[in-house]
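Schema walk-through. Below, the input block comes first and the output block second. Nothing else is stored per chain. Lengths vary across the set, and this one has 319 residues.
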Amino acid sequence: MNAIGVDLGGTNIKAALVSQDGKFLAKKHVKTEVSSGKERVAAKIADIVNDLGQGDRSICVGIGSPGSIDRKNGLVRFSPNLPGWLDFPLAPLVSEKTGREVLIENDAKAAALGEKWFGEARGCDSFIVLTLGTGVGGGAVTNGQLLIGGGGIGGELGHMCVDPRGPLCGCGSHGCLECYASSSGMRRLAEEYRARYPHSLVFQEQSGGQFEAIAAFSAYQRGDPLAEIIYERFVFAMGVAIGSLVNIFNPEKIILSGGISSSAPLYLEKVKKISNEYTVLSMMNSFDIVQSSLKENAAIYGAASIVFDRKLPHTSEVL
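--- output ---
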């Protein structure tokens, strides 16, 4: 069985024809151009799907989209990365234009499915994926089942509160994990300290004037004082959050995905130490924290896995 996986991002649409054993048979990408309108974005996705499908209408499509998703009706209910997409029928529109069945899932939850089918969670029944990028997302799988909650939008792991007195988060709360473990949160923290550390390597190593989390970790290795502040807040927030997740879900693995996970060798050991300090005694050291092996293809694998998870015979219910 093959599937077409579509990673819908605010900047790029990336897609591939993926075989059941994880091979990329063809791959394409285009600019999203959200400003061109949601119908135009849906048309772009349909064009890519038709190119990759090569006339085979039996190939199903999985779309990983940011935001709150109505998976039953194929709607993007709301997404801060896709302004104006309120209850937008993305899956039905793409299906109409391609003649194929189209399934949709939140991109972070799709990443969890990707790990289940092709990544570090193969053979693992209970695990959590944290996607660390511009924001922080995630998905929890328990006994092989993806957890989504009663309304279908549960599992906002990036908005766990790790410090009630912390900075204001984009969600409207304070001290969320995303405030400390995302590139956007790190950028805000760096700007707060710019006056005190105007010559920090964090600013000097920015690419094209844009903050990059990887530059902050690089500066930390070189002893930069501001980078040390960013790093220490990052590892503490991650440790507290993972400790709480372990207490709630008792996972076998915590899998870190997304761009910031590329620096995992710098912080994994310290994050695990802190997480055990916030884990109940009976669960201490009962879990592994690992870096995703899917790397830059994680989102496409996740999108394709939406199809495999719902179509192939196995326990694929969601709770």
